[in-house]
Amino acid sequence: MADDRESLICCVCLDFFKNPAIIPCGHMFCKECITGLWDKDVCRCPQCKHTFPNRPVITDWLQMKDLSEKLMKMRPKEEDEEDAEAHEVSCDSCTSRRTKAVQSCLTCVSSFCRNHLEKHNDLHGWRKHLLTEVTDLQSKTCSLHGKLLDVFCRTDQKCVCVLCAIHEHKEHDSVSASEERADRQGKLMETREKFQQNVRDREKDLKELKQAEESITCSAQTAVSESERIFSEVLSSVQKTSVRVKELITERQRDELSRIEGLQEKVQLKISDLRMKESELGQLLTTEDHIHFLQNYPKYISEKSEDLSNISKNPKAYFSNVELLLSKMQERLLEVTKETEIKIRSGGAVPPKADGPVSTHSI
């Protein structure tokens, strides 16, 4: 029974005969398979390789058609369900079943499963057909002429087929897709170098931010320590001012550290984004698919870098004015205290309260 089933399988589509027909050399194929093959190539028998000088007459075999249809109805449901599973790109030669394609032929403008790929290589092995990784040929085929898109029109900035270049784009500036890809690849490599430089710049910015964080923390600690030393020398009446000064320093420290942390997060996100895009560019630069390359080219070439070079001019100076202000405040307090003591000893009036307590809002 297995041998009988094999005798009812077309050697082109590798499936049961559909509209079986016999050619003059005596071999039998699906009518659509053999006519489609002859439409693309010379009239040759796929089995015995006999070449016909003129296109021969094909004879229908109705009896074999009935038998083949019965066998197709007897096919197990599991086999049909497995073959009907949706794939990204299906074999163009499998007519009754959808089978995953493993390679595409840019010469035939068709994709083939493993079995039909072997048959294709047997039929066209003596020719130089351009095979590539499996791809959706429909998106790379001219909708007007059905030809492969292999020309790039610089005037209209689009991919066209050779017939479009001859007719519809006759007066336009057109080059081969490979030439345009080579030109744009050079530009894209420059863009990639910019991405890499941006990564290096952002890493440098991150290093500066970490240094600024350490400087701010150290400066804040020094300012707090100095404020404690100064306020330990003044009267108890200025304790509230001392507490307020420490609060202001802490608030300033918190604000500055919060700003630095925000910038660090922003730079880290930017580095991750740049690395991801640089990786995508690496894959794009190595693909053999010119059309995929050209279609994805614009979204990378227009990338703009963000300048974060002026992150912090002098982080060490954030709290350098605290000691100076506190020293002046101490001098003023001592002057007021000495003046008040002298006036009390001499019986003079107490200094007016116009000056009031020293304000710390300027810190």
Q: What tags apply to this protein structure?
A:
mainly alpha; three-stranded antiparallel beta sheet; 53% helix; 11 helices; 9 strands; 363 residues; Herpes Virus-1; rod-shaped
Would you give an account of this structure?
With 363 residues, the protein is mostly helical. Among the domains are: 1-75, Zinc/RING finger domain, C3HC4 (zinc finger) (Herpes Virus-1), CATH 3.30.40; 194-320. The protein has eleven helices and nine strands. The protein has helices at residues 2-7, 31-40, 62-73, 77-83, 114-124, 162-166, 177-231, 239-286, 290-296, 298-301, 320-346; strands at residues 20-22, 28-30, 59-60, 103-105, 110-112, 131-133, 151-153, 158-160, 174-176. It has a three-stranded antiparallel beta sheet with strand order 2-1-3. The chain has a three-stranded antiparallel beta sheet with strand order 5-4-6. The protein has a three-stranded antiparallel beta sheet with strand order 8-7-9. Helix 7 runs antiparallel to helix 8, helix 7 crosses helix 9 (290-296) and helix 7 (177-231) packs parallel to helix 11. It is rod-shaped, with a radius of gyration of 41 Å. It starts with a helix and ends in a 17-residue tail after the last helix. Mean pLDDT is 78; it is low at 77-87 and 349-363. Residues 137-177 form the B box-type domain. It comes from Carassius auratus (Goldfish). InterPro entries: E3_ubiq-ligase_TRIM/RNF, TRIM8/14/16/25/29/45/65_CC, Znf_B-box, Znf_RING, Znf_RING/FYVE/PHD, Znf_RING_CS.
